Amino acid sequence: MVRLLTALALGTAALLAPALAGAQDTPPSPEAQFTEECSACHLAFPAFFLPKESWSAIMNDLPNHFGEDASLDNDAMTAIEGYLVKHAARSNRRAFRKYDLETAPPLRITELGWFVHEHSNEVSRAAKKRAGTMTNCAACHRGAERGYFDDD
Fold this sequence. Notes:
The protein is mostly helical. About 45% of the residues lie in helices and about 0% in strands. The longest helix has 24 residues.
């Protein structure tokens, strides 16, 4: 009886091994990679905040990411950039008209017209101080990690 149970257990393990190995070898989705890598240091800003030219410029200069080295391996960088470009804001939107998207795309979300308009009069000095930085969206927007930025 013990031999039969052992054989069944070994046979089941042998049958499941390829499926389990495949599951472990499956890389995370580009969105999951983006969220994991970027939110390790700051909010993983929604891709629609910037045009594709901006995301490409940011991703291609990760060793100098706003004063930090945010380098990634080539596979992760390619996957994340692909995700960001696919979900980026439309480049021809009026919001980006003052930028030369080909040579000097906007890099700082906090300097974009819509961001300044939304935050200049509505955010008190106390709130800015509490947040520490205007890129700390979660300090005021409880759903920021999920892409919700309505007034809370």
